[in-house]
UniProtKB/TrEMBL annotation:
Protein name (record): Endonuclease III
Function: DNA repair enzyme that has both DNA N-glycosylase activity and AP-lyase activity. The DNA N-glycosylase activity releases various damaged pyrimidines from DNA by cleaving the N-glycosidic bond, leaving an AP (apurinic/apyrimidinic) site. The AP-lyase activity cleaves the phosphodiester bond 3' to the AP site by a beta-elimination, leaving a 3'-terminal unsaturated sugar and a product with a terminal 5'-phosphate.
Keywords, ordered alphabetically: 4Fe-4S, DNA damage, DNA repair, DNA-binding, Endonuclease, Glycosidase, Hydrolase, Iron, Iron-sulfur, Lyase, Metal-binding, Nuclease
Keyword Membrane among record annotations: no
Family: Belongs to the Nth/MutY family.
Pfam families tied to this protein: EndIII_4Fe-2S, HHH, HhH-GPD
Metal-binding among keywords: yes
Lineage top rank: taxon: Bacteria
CC cofactor note: Binds 1 [4Fe-4S] cluster.
The protein's required cofactors: [4Fe-4S] cluster
Classification via SUPFAM superfamilies: DNA-glycosylase
EC number: 4.2.99.18
Binding site for [4Fe-4S] cluster: C197, C204, C207, C213
Organism for this UniProt entry: Micromonospora fulviviridis
Amino acid sequence: MTTRSPETDLGRTRRARRIGRVLTETHPDAHCELDHSNALELSVATILSAQCTDKKVNEVTPKLFARYRTAADYAGADRAELEELIRPTGFYRNKTSSLINLGRALCERYDGEVPGRLADLVTLPGIGRKTANVILGNAFDVPGITVDTHFQRLVQRWGLTTETDPVKIEHAIGALYPKRDWTMLSHRIIFHGRRVCHARKPACGACTLAKLCPAYGTGPTDPVAAAKLLKGPRARDLAAAVGIDPDLVPQQAVAAEVP
Ligand code: SF4
């Protein structure tokens, strides 16, 4: 009987890079799913995205951004009006407080501008390290790794780290990839988590990473069953990428809202 020797650090790094390359091919459409046109809008959208889908946030923000254009607008907001505008995103009282406090802090400490440094961003109300990395990567082009629930689950399934603390995960994964790739890598991992490698029933039999993933088999490996688990507008392309007949992907999967 042969036993497989444990993976070396070099072997893990090589596998991580291969995973990165496959994800680049699998999700050419990966991007920040929160609509925004500047750093303030992205900061606001990210605060609203707590416990809420990006799709719902994107439904709310056009009207919000048209009404509130500057940090001073949020600082001087009428609470009842702001609450009403963001109510569909849930936890709207807390989120309203965060937005007003964010506007005040930006006006008092940063001349109304969102700062482009992690150390400054994390001092702002409603902005933790994860949010700060989203803002840096997408509004300032500063590479950042975003460890959200999808990112955390996937890198653990891939055996790339055994860490459970988000900051330690960020450092462990950052060490495996070139810094310039961090932001897009984060988007692609999160895309894969939302569309293929779901928390409860990952679509293992329809996953482009099957050969590189030690957790293959966590979800159904039968292609027909797995194809039904794919989600999002490119669900049929994702099936085709692993040789599955795209017609096996039901229409509701294509139309499904990604979590
Ligand atoms: S093979 Fe399964 S567990 Fe591994 S990444 Fe793909 S869907 Fe996730």
